[in-house]
Write a structure and sequence with these properties.
Elements: H1 6-22, H2 40-54, E1 61-62, H3 74-87, H4 103-114, E2 126-129, H5 132-138, E3 149-153, H6 157-165, E4 172-173, E5 176-177, E6 180-184, E7 202-206, H7 218-231, E8 234-238, E9 264-269, H8 271-274, E10 282-285, E11 291-293, E12 299-301, H9 302-313, H10 319-326, H11 331-357, E13 361-364, E14 370-374, H12 379-390, E15 392-393, E16 395-396, E17 407-411, H13 416-429
Parallel strand pairs: 1-15, 3-6, 3-7, 7-8, 8-9
Antiparallel strand pairs: 2-10, 4-5, 9-10, 11-12, 13-14, 14-17, 16-17
Helix pairs in contact: 3-10, 4-10, 5-6, 11-13, 12-13
The structure holds D-malate (MLT).
Amino acid sequence: MNYPGRPRLFKFFARRSLSRTFAAMIRINENYTKLKASYLFSDIAKRVSAYVAANPSKPVIRLGIGDVTEPLPPVCLEALHAATDEMGRRATFKGYGPEQGYAFLREAIAQHDYAARGCKIEADEVFVSDGSKCDCGNIQEIFAQDVRLAIPDPVYPVYVDTNVMAGRTGASVDGRYQGITYLESTPANGYVPSVPSVATDLIYLCFPNNPTGAVATRAQLQAWVTYARQHKAVILFDSAYEAYIRNPEIPHSIYEIEGAREVAIEFRSFSKTAGFTGTRCAYTVVPKSLVAYDAAGNAHPLHALWTRRHTTKFNGVAYPIQKAAAAIYTDAGKQQTSELINFYLANAKLIRDAMTKLGFACIGGDNAPYIWVNTGRDSWEFFDLLLNRAQVVCTPGAGFGKCGEGHVRISAFNSRENVETALARIAAALK
Ligand code: MLT
């Protein structure tokens, strides 16, 4: 049979296969090749899985990743059930919600987390999201490619890795990416870095700190705000663990510091406050008075940029989840979350006391759920020792940066029984 279209079709496929061979092809973002092969916690999970597979009769206790173990507070559960029922009735059903979050939650946050502490934050400066990890990772998108970065060491790996992915660094040389000013947290400075002697533009700070558990005083935070104002820089302040602060002198928010509204973005999360690691709800505050500049020196409000980014790439947190989050601001909610946090802090005290008794210098655990243990030896070696001899998982400090070497992080997120068993096993293993 004669098909008139055939010769043309043949030519099309011949041309296509030739172009595949010789011309441009799909290419990767080569910045990803600068990263370590896998994310720290995936790496640890693989090692632990291999150990468990090889030693099925030895139960492992996980004090590594900071994942909560206790159930949601009852107020959250009730709100979650009630809101789910609303979704099952035509009259109260909800489709897409506002990308930035429902007003009931944004208003509760502005009132209870900020106004109550004397901070001027409006409800429409709060952006509700599904996690601080995502927000801390995504925020860099609204800044120029060539901003100068200041990032702590040791550090939550997301701050570094997302900037590497975006192409803001050179290669990693001797455990450090070129192009980053590292803010070293060491025993010498009490694990709270001072402002650098050089100018930087985008500064990541986290207090109470992950991984060290250190907290920053008002004077230390004031020095950072003053530095940022002098250099027209922006501070990205991660305060995901603020609910663990028990020392009344320690600020919970960067906005408790004079002038911070002009230089800081703050990240908060319900994960560690109310057990939402699996439920997913967090928020980011971008004050309307905060600006950054274009190449011509014109100021642009970052609130407008983040609104554009958030509404374009995010479609809001589920209504029942936002209702559950809002429930923590009721009187019963405040009481229940405070009990939850006290429970983990009591675990933290047990861990810190036990490790101190074993002769290790420790910080954290008093205003944070993490204890940073100065082991004085290779941190992966210490991790392996605890895993193999005590069947306890910790996080090797080197995974958080060069200054983390010689330390491990122990997390207080587990049941009391598991924490007590883990500490008894560690004591026996290190005898
Ligand atoms: C951690 O272990 O550092 C936490 O799980 C980090 C996080 O919340 O993503």
